[in-house]
């Protein structure tokens, strides 16, 4: 007779917690040595540095607390509903009562604490989508895909209306990745993601730029759809669903480009696609980031010796462009060390479902959280280096901000909980 039991380990994985804490400390050091209080020789810490230190301690406490949390409670339907409703309500409140910064309403202050609900929305999309797709024994795959997308759609719309187009795309990508890893037949899932990306981007570009490149993307997406539709009878419904979602997504994004997006948001994209013809003002932030990174050379200028960030030549050096501020002071060596820390953190996350793939629900959440962090790191570093459009996505654990820091530690604590609650068979 086999008895299924749960391990009751309360371990802390240093390969996850230690890199996260070190990255956070490097972020705090970068904030401190580029802060006006340090530059004028003041002995006191500024509010932004004090808050970030506090966020680090609270984040570690959240990580430790969640490591003792029984992951199985995330299969409790009322808890999932509560998380989803709370996220949607926070996003609605942000639209009506949020603070407006540069024409966007993305933050809301509750009890003196400033929150960015769209950061929580990333985790909500992962958990809710994984929960819905975990019901495959009761419902057809295509029903669950549609249901998960319909649940994600209000979140996408509310975030887009802030407006925050880049965050909307990230949320859509997180949903797609979660669906990908929740379902069997990974090759089929890859084709579905390919249809979604090619057709939606192609339609958007065809309406906005009327370029032949985007028409080619639509044609390739159509070929992939037709191959998926006729190569396997079991794929027809799912392929059709993704094709329709891609068309709707492309039409909505092209309409939003002309009617909703603000001029500065359009400039970020156009300056990336056509940098030679872009207005110099639209590329100023990225240009200053490149100058800061290049001036750091191999070993950097040393802590407290930055010029771009300290003298306010580098905009948003505490959030979006904190990597450029860090690289100016620590150079290529510091950049390699930071990249190694993120690599250690992400590899420690992705190895978990490889070791234990028996629980699809848990494995999907772990992989989706890892992909979420990977996307955030890739986009932020790409923005600083000028290889991706400027999007306003902070660097997780390093950029100043309570929402992104606490949500990241919450996510890592959830992963630790999954690690500590692996099931095993005792013969």
How many domains? The number is: 1
Low-confidence stretches: 1-7, 423-427
Q: How are helices and strands ordered from N to C? A: EHHHHEEEHHHHHHHHHHHE
* Sheet with most strands: 3 strands, antiparallel
The count of DSSP E runs of length 2 or more, i.e. the number of strands, is 5
Describe this structure in words.
The protein is mainly alpha-helical and 427 residues long. The chain is built from 15 helices and five strands. The strands form two sheets. Strands 2-3-4 form a three-stranded antiparallel sheet, covered by helices on one side. It has a two-stranded antiparallel sheet with strand order 1-5. The protein is globular and about 70 Å long. The chain starts with a strand and ends with a strand.
Descriptors for this entry?
globular, disordered N terminus, 15 helices, 5 strands, mainly alpha, three-stranded antiparallel β-sheet, disordered C terminus, 427 residues
Question: Mind sketching the topology for me?
Answer:
Layout: E1 3-6, H1 14-33, H2 36-39, H3 47-67, H4 77-97, E2 99-101, E3 104-110, E4 113-115, H5 117-133, H6 141-160, H7 165-182, H8 186-208, H9 212-231, H10 236-259, H11 263-273, H12 284-295, H13 322-355, H14 360-385, H15 402-420, E5 423-426
Antiparallel strand pairs: 1-5, 2-3, 3-4
What is the structure about, briefly put?
The chain has helices at 14-33, 36-39, 47-67, 77-97, 117-133, 141-160, 165-182, 186-208, 212-231, 236-259, 263-273, 284-295, 322-355, 360-385, 402-420, and strands at 3-6, 99-101, 104-110, 113-115, 423-426. With 427 residues, the protein is mostly helical.
């Amino acid at each position: 007779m086999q008895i299924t039991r749960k391990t009751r380990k309360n371990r802390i994985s240093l390969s996850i917690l230690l890199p996260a804490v070190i990255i956070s400390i490097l972020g705090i050091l970068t904030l401190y040595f580029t802060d006006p209080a340090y530059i004028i020789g003041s002995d006191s810490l500024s509010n932004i540095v004090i808050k970030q230190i506090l966020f680090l301690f609270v984040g570690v406490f959240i990580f430790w607390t969640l490591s003792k949390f029984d992951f199985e409670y995330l299969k409790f339907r009322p808890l999932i509903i509560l998380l989803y409703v709370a996220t949607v309500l926070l996003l609605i409140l942000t639209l009506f009562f949020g603070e407006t910064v540069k024409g966007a309403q993305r933050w809301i202050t509750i009890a003196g604490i400033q929150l960015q609900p769209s950061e929580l929305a990333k985790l909500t999309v992962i958990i809710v989508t994984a929960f819905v797709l975990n019901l495959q024994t009761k419902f057809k795959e295509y029903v669950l895909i549609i249901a998960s997308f319909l649940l994600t759609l209000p979140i996408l719309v509310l975030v887009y209306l802030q407006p925050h187009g880049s965050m909307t795309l990230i949320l859509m990508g997180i949903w797609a990745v979660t669906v990908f890893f929740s379902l069997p037949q990974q090759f089929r899932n890859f084709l579905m993601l390919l249809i979604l990306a090619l057709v939606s981007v192609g339609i958007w570009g065809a309406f906005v730029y009327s370029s032949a490149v985007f028409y080619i993307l639509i044609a390739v997406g159509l070929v992939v759809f037709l191959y998926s539709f006729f190569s396997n009878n079991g794929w027809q419904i799912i392929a059709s669903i993704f094709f329709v979602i891609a068309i709707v997504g492309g039409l909505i994004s092209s309409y939003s480009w002309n009617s909703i997006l603000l001029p500065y948001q359009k400039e970020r994209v156009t300056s990336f696609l056509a940098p030679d013809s872009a207005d110099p003002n639209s590329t100023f932030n990225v240009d200053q980031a490149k100058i800061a990174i290049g001036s750091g050379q191999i070993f950097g200028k040393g802590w407290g010796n930055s010029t771009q960030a300290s003298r306010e030549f580098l905009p948003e050096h505490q959030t979006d462009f904190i990597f450029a501020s860090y690289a100016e002071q620590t150079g290529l060596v510091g950049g390699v060390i930071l990249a190694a820390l993120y690599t250690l953190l992400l590899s420690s996350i992705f190895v978990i479902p490889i070791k234990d793939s028996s629980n699809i629900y848990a494995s999907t959440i772990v992989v989706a959280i890892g992909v979420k962090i990977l996307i955030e790191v890739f986009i932020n570093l790409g923005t600083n280096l000028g290889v991706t459009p400027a999007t306003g996505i902070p660097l997780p654990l390093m950029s100043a901000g309570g929402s992104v820091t606490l949500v990241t530690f919450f996510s890592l604590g959830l992963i630790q909980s999954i690690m500590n609650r692996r099931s095993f068979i005792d013969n």
